[in-house]
Design brief:
Organism: Peredibacter starrii
Shape: rod-shaped
Largest sheet: 9 strands, mixed
Distance between the termini: 39 Å
Keywords: Membrane, Transmembrane, Transmembrane helix
Structural class: alpha+beta
Low-confidence stretches: 169-186
Protein name: DUF58 domain-containing protein
Mean pLDDT: 83
Order of helices and strands: EHHEEEEEEEEEEHEEEHEEH
CATH architecture of the largest domain: Sandwich
Number of strands: 16
């Protein structure tokens, strides 16, 4: 099994410290100042200890898996990282999935819970997870890179306004009737017993004044049909917002893509928008 390497470089403050130690060494040798030389060697020894301490914050870290939730661009997206093994001590890391920063808010030896923000809409195929730390004193930064294979969808940014939904043909206030006819194309009617108003035969009521309901009738809301034809980014955002609205309100909907494919599930529809 390939063992990932841990790399260490000084931070800006660490660079200043190393420069100071080097300058002190030159002065102590140039002026034959033994006291300054002893102090310089003491700082050099401390510096090595700080390097080792930073290294041990990543030493033994073994990657397991990572899951990134599909979400809307510019929204907080959940990230879950599982570790096979983690080092002892405070678990404080900075993470990068390729070039996207990942902010951890809960770390254990088995798992890190975090979130990221997709900068824009699209399909993200992550291949590298970079784990870095500048603990304990911020003088050195150590990092290690793991190979990953994760695909995540960033849906279009949600629009502020819902806009107008595509109009759909309907029989009664946005409803479609699928009716079972009786003999001689006459609707089967039954007595009204407190059913929903949409099941009442209003034509019969207008003629006779008697409330009856249509039996064997199945009513369902009209399906809102969306289509993709080279939309702009703003139109994609509007479309994504409308799809979520229809899903939340249990309004049947479909999305016809530019390739002619029709999707009915919200997640699949949003993925199609992400791939545009």
């Amino acid at each position: 099994m390939k063992k990932e390497r841990i790399y260490i470089l000084p931070t800006r403050m660490g660079g200043y410290l190393n420069g100071l130690i080097f300058l002190m060494f030159l002065l102590s040798v140039g002026y034959s100042n033994n006291l300054l030389l002893i102090f310089t060697l003491f700082l050099f020894g401390l510096n090595l200890i700080w390097v080792i301490q930073t290294h041990f914050h990543l030493h033994g870290l073994k990657f397991g898996s990572v899951q990134v939730t599909d979400n809307f661009a510019e929204d907080l997206t959940s990230v879950s990282i599982h570790w096979k093994k983690a080092p002892e001590g405070p678990l404080s890391w900075d993470l990068l999935l390729d070039k996207v920063p990942v902010k951890t808010f809960h770390n254990t030896k088995e798992r890190s819970d975090a979130h990221l923000v997709f900068p824009k809409r699209g399909v993200y195929q992550f291949s590298k997870l970079k784990v870095s730390t500048s603990q304990p004193f911020g003088l050195y930064r150590a990092w290690i890179t793991f190979n990953v294979d994760v695909t995540a969808y960033a849906y279009p940014v949600k629009a502020k306004d819902l806009g107008v939904l595509p109009s759909t043909p309907s029989h009664t206030e946005g409803e479609i009737s699928t009716m079972n006819k009786g003999p001689h194309d006459v609707w089967n009617l039954g007595p009204y017993q407190g059913e929903e108003s949409r099941k009442i035969s209003w034509k019969h009521y207008a003629r006779s004044g008697e409330l009856v309901v249509k039996e064997g009738e199945e009513l369902q809301e009209a399906e809102v049909k969306f289509e993709l034809h080279g939309p702009t980014e703003g139109q994609l955002s509007q479309l994504a917002t409308q799809l979520v609205y229809c899903s939340d309100k249990s309004i049947p909907f479909s999305l016809k893509t530019s390739s002619g494919k029709t999707e009915h599930q919200l997640r699949e529809c949003l993925k199609e928008l992400a791939k545009c």
